[in-house]
Design brief:
Layout: E1 6-14, E2 20-29, H1 35-55
Antiparallel strand pairs: 1-2
């Protein structure tokens, strides 16, 4: 909440030891991002984080 006029959705990238090693975050102006769109961005961030983990050899 450092920037009240913005919204963010994010997801962690995990290592093969199930430790968070990075994150994927989407940030946008709250006035242009609806709640359904923010939820979709969260799903996209999670899918991208999973894909990054998979490229590092992480199987979830």
């Amino acid at each position: 909440d450092m920037y009240p006029s913005s919204m963010a959705a994010g997801a962690p990238v995990f290592s093969e030891h199930n430790a968070p090693i990075a994150s994927v975050t989407v940030v946008g102006p709250r006035a242009r991002v609806s709640k359904p769109m923010a939820h979709h961005f969260g799903e996209l961030a999670a899918a991208t984080a999973t894909a990054i983990g998979a490229s590092l050899g992480v199987v979830r």
